[in-house]
Write a structure and sequence with these properties.
This protein is α/β, with parallel strands linked by helices and 215 residues long. It contains 8 helices and 11 strands. Helices cover 36% and strands 20% of the residues. α8 links the parallel β7 and β8.
């Protein structure tokens, strides 16, 4: 398997570091049914996108910012709804604190809460839906993270579980590792490579550089 040299690793949140799938499906399904929308239409387009953009696609008539607040709060508050993805804690512990970031399509307050609920560290740099004008698959979120970490975009590796996020990383000129936690490997083919678990990813670091080894 190939290895990557980079200056920083940028992680998507849901599906990569934490699993909120039961909460996400429950909340979005209930919201869809309450608003007379086919839940399948919502679940098809939502992965990897900001909630506000999902609503603009499936329900352009609603007050998107107000509904996003309700939806994100419900997902975060869902009892036992967020757990760490296997291997996430070990991988994050292996990284210098100034060499990684979370780039999420969720709101900042709820992203931090989900990390804490999963007993994972909240990074120094967290780029959320609040921080960008355009969400994934636009590269703006990942480019913003690189800028805040003060590293060149082409020196970053992105870890993503959704096609929209993979496209965002690639559009930003970054190497992308697809994690087959939400989608089967065949649907992540735009990534530079695909792994089944985070345990396959090992990182060594020296002199400010990271070596990402794939097993």
């Amino acid at each position: 398997m190939p290895n990557f040299l980079c200056s920083a690793i940028l992680f998507d949140l849901d599906g990569v570091l934490v699993d909120s799938t039961p909460a996400i499906i429950h909340v979005w399904t209930a919201w869809s049914q309450a608003n007379g929308i086919d839940p399948n239409n919502v679940l098809t387009v939502m992965h990897g996108r900001r909630s506000v953009e999902v609503l603009r696609i499936v329900a352009p008539q609603v007050d998107a910012p107000a509904e996003v607040e309700k939806i994100e709060h419900a997902i975060t508050s869902y009892k036992n709804g967020t757990v760490a993805i296997p291997g996430a804690a070990d991988l994050l512990r292996s990284l210098p604190g100034d060499r990684w970031s979370v780039v999420t399509s969720g709101l900042r307050a709820f992203a931090s809460a989900r990390l804490r609920a999963a007993n994972l560290p909240v990074p120094n740099i967290l780029v959320s839906a609040d921080d960008v004008v355009k969400g994934k698959p636009d590269p703006e979120p990942y480019l913003k993270a690189a800028e805040l970490l003060r590293v060149k975009a082409e020196h970053c590796v992105v870890i993503e579980d959704a096609p929209a996020g993979i496209r965002a990383g690639r559009a930003g000129g970054m190497k992308v590792i697809g994690l087959a936690s939400t989608y089967p490997p065949g649907e992540l083919s735009e990534a530079d490579l695909v792994v089944k678990t985070l345990a396959q990813i090992k990182v060594a670091h020296s002199n400010g550089q990271l070596e990402v080894n794939i097993r």
